[in-house]
């Protein structure tokens, strides 16, 4: 049985970034479309304007969707959540298949 996360083409970063952007929009009820989230725009503070609570919510939905844990005490969180691209890179490297 194959779930939606593993059905993604692992060689297609555009597909993954589109899905992750949609997860962010849906989880946070943003008044924008997934396509409006630029790959390299900052997620936190300036850019998309997420705060620490928003980041925790994104971490929760990403963890559930891709089968690995994003922990609040991870020293790499600043770099993981720098942008949509950095978050997708982290997901690509860590998701379970």
From TrEMBL:
Gene3D superfamilies: ACP-like. It holds the Pfam family PP-binding. Coiled coil: none annotated. Residues 14-95 form the Carrier domain. It comes from the Bacteria. This is Acyl carrier protein. It comes from Thiorhodococcus mannitoliphagus. The lineage of its organism: Bacteria, Pseudomonadati, Pseudomonadota, Gammaproteobacteria, Chromatiales.
